[in-house]
Structures are given as C-alpha cells and as structure tokens.
Amino acid sequence: MKLKQVEGLLGTLQQFSNPKAESTFGDISGKVVADFGCGCGTLGIASALLGAEHVISIDIDSQALEIASENAADLELDIDFICCDIKNLGWRGQLVNTVVMNPPFGTRKKGSDMGFLTIALKVASEAVYSLHKTTTRDHVKRTALRDCNAKSAEVLCELKFDVPQLYKFHKKKEVDIAVDLWRFVP
Amino acid sequence: MRLLTHNMLSCNIKGVSNGFPLRLEAEKWVEKEVELNADFLRGIFPKIEWKALAGAARALGYNELPDEADASMLDADDFLRRFHHALLELHVEEGALVCPETGRRFPINKGIPNMLLHEDEV
Questions:
Q1: A26 contact B CB<8A
Q2: How far apart are CA B26 and CA A75, in angstroms?
Q3: SS3 for B44?
Q4: Which residue segment(s) compose the domain that B28 sits in?
Q5: Sheet with B23-31, edge to edge strand ranges
Q6: Which chain B residues are closer than 8 Å to A86 by Cβ?
Q7: For residue B4, what is the nearest residue in chain A, using CA coordinates?
Q8: Which pTM value belongs to this model?
Q9: B84: in domain
Q10: Is residue B64 assigned to a domain?
C-alpha cells in the first residue's frame, strides 16, 4: 500500500467512524450495505466490522479497488467489490438497505456529490449516510427533500477533515474542510 | 463476488431492456463458510429473483436449489441452509457476466466484476 493511501485511509477512519449508524439507528448490523465511491474501502470495511450481513463496495477506479480488496482481505472480511461508474449502475430491485458514502465533493466536477446522492436515494430502501461540505448544507437539504423526495434529511454531526495532499490536483500540503455527516431516509 | 450481488446486477448499457439476469460464466470460484442468519434470509427472500439465483448456483455446480421457491419453504432448516449457501457462501473469483440481450461480457477478475462501459455504450 502506498504511503499516501495509508494516510488517507487512516485519516478517514479516525475522523469518520460511524457507530451512530448502528447504535442509534440500527442501519448496519444484519443489513445489506452499499459503499458508493469506496476508494480504499474504509466505509464498507467499517460497515462489515459493525456486522453488516453483506457489503458491496463500488468505485470507478480499479487500482483503488485492488487496494480496498487487500484491506478487506487483511481483516478477513468478505466484501464484494464492483468496478463501475455510479452514474451507469444497472441495479435491480431494492435489495440494498443502507448506502454509506464519502462522495467526491465536487471541487473538480461540480455537483459530483449530488449525483451520488440522487442515485443513493433511489437505491437504498432504508437509509443513506453521506458526507458533504458544510458550506453546501442548505443546497444538500433542498436537493434531498425537494428533488429526490427524501422523507428526511438530518445532519448528525459536523466533522473537520484534514485532507492531506493525496492527488496531483491538490495544491496545498494539507487543508481543513468542515464536513457534515448526513442521514437521509429515502 | 457472491450470488447475492449477482442477483442485483443487470446490464447497464444504454438501450438494453432485457439485461437481467446476467449469465454467469465461472472459471474459478471458492466456498467460504459464514454464519447463517435466519432473520436476514427470511427478510431478503421476497426480494430475490429465484430463477436467477438457482441458475447462477447451477453455473457453479451447486444444484441443490429447487427450480421454484415460495416463502413457506423458509420454515424448513434444510431449505434455509441451501439458500444461505448459494446466496452468501459461494464466491466467484474468475469468470464473466454476460448480457443476455447484447452478449457483452463483463469480466470478473480476483472476484471483482468490471462493469465500466465504453463510450458508445453510455
């Protein structure tokens, strides 16, 4: 595993571990959970550790999936990975109970995270957990409730992400972003 | 890739209307035991496309599933065990998923199906 990927993985794990999803809402244990845009697999892995019955982790990047697959294997977890563009997902039925995701924030491709949210709310039968920049809070709420007909949209907590310089397009060595953890009911 | 995931996937090429189920061609698969959760199985049964599950299981040489199933069978431990085994304990490592309408192959390598579309398929 490259050092940058390790840092990214640990950073996300420390700052966003999702015990609330299980302890408060019971959305993970014994459920079918999908991780949209899984990257190195953190959220899907956390869900498996919290007792999800079946986890499907999806990303467009096959190299990220190889790393995610190794991470899951290291922890002896059975997670299904799919290499796919979320926009073109051919998914039958309402077999997924909960979607968890840390979508791209839309700094390069505007609105990327909202695209993810729209699809997540179609796919999940019970709950969607998602992260979006705090600066977009009102927009996220409106989109979820008005455009996607979500039954509810609640900010569970506000987090601060230390994003290290992970990608070539990152100009600074490190940056702090205020991020909301949302729970939506489709 | 478990057969539960296979039961959810359909061909995602633009214009395809009969993209489910994807035909499973398996070259390598493994069995991994995992604890049976009867509540989970009973809950998910109504959402499962049974013929697709039975067909995929047969492609892996597991012929113990009946051709048809109804909810009353969930009372029998034996049926639950077979359902559980097919759904969650068979993992396809190498092979392909084939679209029934176009014949397009989506390869499976190291257990990961590649469903990325070409530009002209979107």
A1: no
A2: 26
A3: helix
A4: 3-114
A5: B23-31, B90-98, B105-109, B112-113
A6: none
A7: A54
A8: 0.90
A9: yes
A10: yes
